[in-house]
Design brief:
Layout: E1 9-14, E2 26-31, E3 41-44, H1 46-49, E4 54-60, E5 66-72, E6 82-88, E7 104-107, E8 116-123, E9 129-135, E10 148-153, E11 167-168, E12 185-186, E13 189-190
Antiparallel strand pairs: 1-2, 2-3, 4-5, 5-6, 6-7, 8-9, 9-10, 10-11, 12-13
Length: 191
């Protein structure tokens, strides 16, 4: 994800080889040293926390630390997925940072049986964080084919200070979907 001498990496969900059940998934990253990829390193251990952690999104925060948001399914109740996050000072060491273990829950559907998932992140010029995600919260039926894209913005440059109300990005009719989102910031333009 980040490093003093590397600066280039990849992060993703992985069922193998460390996870022996499809009910669990790790989020892992590898560093690029300019000529080859390094070893896999676990950022979120789904097997240890009893979760299928996945669909990670990463952004560098205004203070130089890194935020990793991901969907998790180890929540009490009947929520298929909620969004959690972890903060790392260097983008490499996630288990020694605030919000370790299962991470910090920050986006949960209002209704059990509904999900929030697939987060993507961007840091605005003023330091606030944008999170786009998919949810089936207001659909007549649950599931990806009925999920819509939503957006929320952190109250400050510190995600722990809270998040604003969910906003509809597209007017998607019930029974249709707008999912597998992404977000990017170029100058002052959010895409």
């Amino acid at each position: 994800v980040a490093g003093e001498t590397v600066g280039t990496g990849v992060v993703g969900g992985n069922h193998q080889p460390a996870v022996t059940s499809l009910a669990y998934q790790n989020i892992e990253y590898m560093q690029w040293d300019g000529s080859q990829w390094g070893n896999r390193t676990i950022a979120c251990n789904g097997a240890n926390s009893g979760s299928r952690d996945g669909m990670p999104g990463v952004t560098q925060l205004q203070d130089g630390s890194w935020m990793l948001a991901y969907e998790a399914n180890n929540t009490r109740g009947t929520y298929p997925f909620i969004l959690r996050y972890k903060i790392s000072e260097d983008g490499l060491n996630w288990d020694t940072a605030p919000g370790t273990g299962n991470g910090t829950a920050f986006c949960i559907a209002d209704t059990e049986g509904r999900k929030t998932s697939g987060p993507a992140l961007a840091t605005l010029p003023d330091g606030r964080v944008v999170c786009v995600f998919q949810t089936d919260q207001d659909a007549s039926q649950a599931g990806d084919s009925n999920s819509t894209l939503r957006l929320m913005i952190s109250e400050s440059a510190d995600p722990a200070d809270g998040w604003g109300e969910w906003m509809d990005v597209f007017s998607t009719p019930d029974g249709n979907s707008s999912v597998w989102n992404g977000v990017a910031l170029s100058g002052n333009q959010l895409f």
